[in-house]
Structure formats: C-alpha cells, structure tokens
Amino acid sequence: MTTFDAGAVPDLTGTTAIVTGATSGIGLATAHALAGAGARVVFAVRDVGKGAEAAANTPGRTEVRELDLADLASVRAFAASWTGPIDLLINNAGVSMPALSHTKDGFETTFGVNHLGHFALTTLLLEHVTGRIVTLASQAERLARLDLDDLGRRQRPYRQSRAYNNSKLANLLFTAELQRRLTATGSAVLANAAHPGLVATNIYRRTGPRRPADLFWALAFKLLAQDAEHGALPVLYAAVADIPGNSFAGPSRFAHLRGAPQLIDRTAVARDPELARRLWVLSEELTGVRSPV
C-alpha cells in the first residue's frame, strides 16, 4: 500500500499551479501543499477578498485572481489575461445546490460549475498547460444517471444528490476524453482525476429541514470523515505521482472513504468512450468553447 503524504510532493520551485476554489477546504489544503513545495500558486476564486485572506495565510509564493465558474464571461476573462506556462491546473472548485438554480448562462448550477465551467476553463487554458490537469471527481459517480438530453433538469424533478452525482460522472468522462485527445496529438500533458474520500468540508453542510437520512450522514461523518489536508492527498497524488494519464486517485481504506491515496476503479459508464465523446461535443456547443486538441 502506498504511503504517499504531503511530504512526498517533490520540489516544485519554478513551477506555476492554478487551484480553483482555493479559499477553503480541499482547495486551500492543496494550495498550501503546493506552495509549501515551492510552487507559485494562483488562487482562482470567486470571492477575491476571501481568496486574499487565504493566500495571506499560505506560506510561499501566491497570487489571487478572480474566477467565477458560474459565469462564462468570467472564465473567458481569466483565460484571456493569462500568460506563461501552467505546470499544474487543479480543477477543484465544486458546489452542490440544495434547490434548482441556474448559472448566469442558464445552466443548472451544479453541473454548470462542476463540469461546464471547468471544461471551458481547461479548454481555454490548454495551450499554456505543460504538465498536468487534475479534476476533482468523486465515487458519487456510481449513483449517477446522466441524461445528456436533460442537463438543465427541466424534464425531471431536481434532486440535489442526483445533480451532484451527475456532475462527478461528467468530471470523469471529461478527464478520459481530454486524455484521449491529448494522447492523439502526441502531447505530454496528463489529465487525471481525484476522489478525495469523505471529507468534512462546506460542500456537505445541509440547510433546511432535517431528514432521516441526515442522521446516517451525521454518524458517517463522525466515524469516517477526514480533514481537508487528508482529503487533498489524492489530488496531490494525481498531480505529482508517477502514474499514467486518465488515472483516478482516491483513498485506500473503508471503501475509499479515507486513507492514503492509491489508484482506484470507476464504473463502466465512466469508462464509456462514446458517452465521453458525446459529452465533450455537447460541452463545446453549450459553452461555445472549441477544443484546440
């Protein structure tokens, strides 16, 4: 079993890493680890004030730039202002909306932020990337029922868990198709995905009336949830370990809920090349962003 921990991250002096949603949780822990290893870390965040506070408490070389993944104009502006190589692009930011809502471009918010926003960002920045792209996925994809004909959740009732699960499946399909395209062009850039396990972060905080299932989650968190620093380990593993492209990293223990990172499996649906291709083409159409690969 691997013993990978934050100390296993190599010297990253002279490299540049972008971490989306780095103001708290796994994103902040990832940024801390990368900056501590010598990387220049760019906090790509919606709230610049919170980003500045987080960056100020991060040792090492940091920078804060505004990025709202729920607004494609903001994504385009971020990418247009970028110059220089990107050694690591960490697509970390994620939401799980309790009720149906939409991004500024009219997409269902959870899918719009977790997949489409990162799809557009990655595609627009791809010409600058020289190293790896790591996208936060989840084994929640095992419960997904992705309907490419109803991504806006208009034909079926909205369910928070279903929307989140579908977005995480999309993250894995995106990673697989991105790696396929990179390989086909002879690029040395690697695209990987990471499942952080069960982590006590804000994305799991529930609002509104309590349900019977909440008692189960409260007990599961008490017994199994790990902190953000441990949740960031699969992300770091996917970013720096000697593993092939389209790898999926996650915790090694308790059904991949916690523990040291290792390579883990994904469902047959997440490995479906035709579904990945169809999602990619649809994502290009929805965002208006065409892939350079």
TrEMBL record:
Record's keyword terms, sorted: Oxidoreductase
MF terms (GO), sorted A to Z: oxidoreductase activity
PANTHER family named in the record: NAD(P)-BINDING ROSSMANN-FOLD SUPERFAMILY PROTEIN (PTHR24320:SF148), RETINOL DEHYDROGENASE (PTHR24320)
Family the UniProt entry places it in: Belongs to the short-chain dehydrogenases/reductases (SDR) family.
UniProt-listed NCBIfam families: PRK06197.1 (NF004846)
The protein, known as: NAD(P)-dependent dehydrogenase, short-chain alcohol dehydrogenase family
